[in-house]
Amino acid sequence: MHINAGIAGLVGALLIGKRTGYGKELMAPHSLTMTMIGASLLWVGWFGFNAGSNLEANGGAALAMTNSFVATAAAALSWMFAEWIIKGHPSLLGALSGAVAGLVAVTPAAGYAGPMGAIVLGLVVGVVCLFFCTVVKNALGYDDSLDVFGVHCIGGIVGALGTGILVNPALGGAGIIDYTAIPPKVADYDFAAQMISQLWGVSTTLVWSGIGSAILYKIVDVIVGLRANVETEREGLDITEHTERAYNM
Prior knowledge:
The chain has a single domain (2-224), classed as Ammonium transporter fold. Helices cover 69% and strands 2% of the residues. The chain is built from 9 helices and 2 strands, in the order H-H-H-H-H-H-E-E-H-H-H. A two-stranded antiparallel sheet has the order 1-2. The two termini are 37 Å apart. The relative contact order is 0.14.
């Protein structure tokens, strides 16, 4: 899901193009207070997403809830400290971005990794997503205003590949159940076979969603258009499309 959304976001950013003034004018976040509220609500709601997907209250749901908490906390700290080291100061936006990256990465691993594995996953994804949201984004020059690619797509890839490693019972993972056995049992872990499966899933999603979203974007562009003109963009779509302002300043 996150890889799908992330690659679609990147394709959209490339096809639509940069915002007017991007890279030349200050485009700071509108409200860090609202960002904090939104990220906090997201974190709480994610427990229902991961633990609730188990569809019953048992050890699997408890594991998913625990992993969802510790991986997210680790990723928030990882991003914050990495940013602190690189830029000389921590930031609230960075910590919240790390938290979202942790939520994304732990989603596929929530019911399979052990808590320590989830913490390691969070520490890794915080640094990796920070790198893609800063170094890679600046080097390639695309305008991804919400870092959907850097956080969701990259975080999803790290989580998907990390799940293939952390599911190993030797690393505290839950293992893969072999339902062909009678009675079903935890199958022997095969690193190569598991990672090939994870890579196949990631690659298929990237290609399918990337090409599919490009086609859909083009259809929308032909029918109604994707990009507002410069004057409309400058004035703001709240006014031009809805004749009202979200904020009176």
